[in-house]
Amino acid sequence: MADAGLFPEAARAAVRDSAARLRLIRTPTIGPVTYRQLLARFGSAEAALDAVPLLARRGGGRPPALADPRAVASEIARVADLGARHLFIDDADYPPLLAQLENAPAALIARGDLAFTRRPCVAIVGARNASAAACRFARELAVHLGEGGATVVSGLARGVDTAAHVGALGTGTVGVIACGIDVVFPPENAALQEQVAAQGLLLAEQPPGTEPRARHFPFRNRIIAGLSSGTVVVEAAPKSGSLITARLAGEAGREVMAVPGSPLDPRAQGCNLLIREGATLVQNADDILQQIGPIDPRMVRTPVNGYEGQPLLDASDGVRRDVERLLGPVAVDELIRQSGHAPAVVSMVLLELELGGRLEKHAGGRVSLIG
After folding, report:
1. Each residue of 176-216: pLDDT tens digit?
2. Is it the case that residue 29 has pLDDT exceeding 90?
């Protein structure tokens, strides 16, 4: 508030910039990677908003319907009323490990103390219908990890998640939810969610008022994995969200750990499978702390005041034809090699096609042309 009084124009510019960023982020066809490309190319969210319709037409499609500025203004007011704040990916206090993900959320909504993300973070995840023994183990594990200086991260779900948060309340915990910051799921965790926000940190990617949907949980899981140096699975079925979190952690280059269980218990099969596939077997907090080790601050880089990498370069009609002719499905690196054009130019063509609704993305980083 002091800044607003001393530097009113700068404060107004900051408000406009935040609103413009949210308009980009809340536009359904603009994901985290596209958002970062637009900011890198145009330097500001306001300039990117002005450019999106032209880029979409260059890509041969109709301009996307940008988010309603009135809805964005309402979201900003609602977040402030909740005692929360928007946290953009190039803010200095954006969680540093999460910022390393290629698809890191362009914005988070945070309630609580962001300092907990600057400590070594360990995710503890597991079955919602976990056994009493698994819940007790997760709770005690969280207590000992906190005593060892780690922040415990989990998803505020039933079972193992709940036990992990309860165990870490006194030392530091981060809850990541798949709904709006003002929505509680499951309902019985209302008091716990409030405690996490008051004593630790509560994070949401979805706008306030958003009810949890099945498609939201994998996005939530990538945040849990991305925040953490390592992920521990305490109890999980072979096909479960916990294994998705473990897979995402592995893909991000983080430690994947699992607690072994009886082969007669279906809830232990996921953990035993992870161990068979190379996850580290852990039995106590010391095993986990030894595995993740201390974080060297020099190894953690957070984009601040802009985006790293070269801005995208405008492409000629000839380059667009070359790129469209080669779209396969094909990996982007291979597309660049075969086209013979600069990566920044090819990336610009792909951005135009995506904004025009003519680019389809496939597993393994491959892309193809629609229509």
Report:
1. 999 999 999 999 999 999 999 999 999 999 999 999 999 99
2. no
Spell 70-101 as b/e; 16+ CB within 10 A means b: eebeebbebbeeeebbbbbbbbeebbbbbbbb
Pairing of β 173-177 and β 85-88 = unpaired
Q: How far is CA 256 from the centre of its chain?
A: 18
Please give the torsion angle defined by the CA atoms of residues 309, 314, 317 and 321, in that order, rounded to the nearest 10 degrees: 10
Q: Cα(50)–Cα(70) distance, rounded to whole angstroms?
A: 17
CA distance 275 to 281: 6
The C-alpha angle 118, 113, 45, rounded to 5 degrees, equals 80
Strands 151-154 and 173-177: parallel
Per DSSP, the residues of 116-172 read GGGS-EEEEE--TT--HHHHHHHHHHHHHHHHTTPEEEE---TTHHHHHHHHHTTT-
Q: Where are the alpha helices (DSSP H) in the chain?
A: 2-6, 8-25, 32-42, 45-58, 69-81, 96-99, 132-147, 160-168, 190-199, 216-227, 241-251, 269-276, 285-292, 317-326, 332-339, 343-355
HEC per residue, 78-114: HHHHCCCEEEECCCCCCCHHHHCCCCCCCEEEEEECH
Q: Set out the domains of the chain in order of their start, with CATH numbers.
A: 2-81 (no CATH), 110-299 (3.40.50.450), 317-369 (1.10.10.10)
Q: Which of 310, 309, 323 is nearest to 352 (CA)?
A: 323
User: What six digits make up the tokens of 101?
Assistant: 């993900």
Q: Residue 266, preceding bond cis, omega within 30 degrees?
A: no
Q: What is the DSSP letter of 68?
A: P
User: Which residues are paired to 87 by β-bridges?
Assistant: 108
Give the pLDDT band of residue 7 (cuts 50, 70, 90). low
Contact 232, 124 (CB under 8 A): yes
- Global confidence as pTM: 0.90
